[in-house]
C-alpha cells in the first residue's frame, strides 16, 4: 500500500509541521523577538512546500490520466484559486492605505505587485531606489516568486517528458541557480539572491 501510486501522491502529514515551523520563524523575526533568527529561512520553507506540492499535483495528474499535462485547465485552476483573494485584498487595503498613508503611495509598487511582479518592486527599491511604497503589501513579492514557478514548471514538464531528462533539468537548474547566486553575491547584488526567480529556482 505504501508503494502504491495513491500512497505516493497522498497527503503528506509532515508538511503541516513544516508549515508551522515556517510561520513561527517569520512571525518571530517580524516581531524581532529573536534577532538572529533568519526570517528568510521561513519564507524559503514556504517556497519549498509550495514547489513540492505543485510538482506532486502535476505529476499525479499526469500519472492518473496517463497523458501529458494540460496547461489550460491547470492555469485556470490557479487563476480561480489565487486571483480573487488577491483582488479582494487590493480593493479593501489599497484605498485604506492611500487614505491613511498617502505619502507612501507608489503606483509602480501597486501595479507590479498585483500582477505578480512584486519581487521586481522589492529588487528595484533596493537596487535602483524605486519608491518602496506600502509595507503592508510588500510581502506580495513572495507570492510573485511562487506564481513564476507555477508559470515555468508545467511547460518544463511538457518539454522534458522522460524521468532522465527531468532529473537532468533539475540538476541543471540547481547548478545554474547556485552559480548565478555566487555571481550576484560577488558582484554586490545580494537582493537578487533573495527575490530573483533566477536564483530561487533551485
Describe the structure.
The protein has 2 domains: 11-67, no CATH class; 70-189, no CATH class. By secondary structure, it is an all-alpha fold. The chain has helices at residues 5-8, 14-30, 39-65, 71-100, 107-113, 118-127, 140-159, 163-186, 190-195, 197-200. The relative contact order is 0.09. The radius of gyration is 19 Å and the shape is globular. The mean pLDDT is 80. It has 10 helices and no strands. Helix 2 runs antiparallel to helix 3 (39-65), helix 4 packs antiparallel against helix 7 and helix 6 (118-127) crosses helix 7. It starts with a helix and ends with a helix.
Report a brief summary of the structure.
The chain has helices at residues 5-8, 14-30, 39-65, 71-100, 107-113, 118-127, 140-159, 163-186, 190-195, 197-200. By secondary structure, it is mainly α.
| DSSP E strands, number | 0
Largest sheet: none
Helix content: over 70%
Tally the structural domains.
2
* Overall pLDDT confidence: 80
Low-confidence stretches: none
What structural class do helix, strand and pairing data support? mainly alpha
SSE sequence, one letter per element: HHHHHHHHHH
Net shape: globular
Query: Distance between the terminal alpha carbons, to the nearest Å?
Result: 31 Å
| Percent strand | under 5%
Q: What kind of oligomer do you see?
A: single chain
Number of helices: 10
User: What integer value in Å does the Rg equal?
Assistant: 19 Å
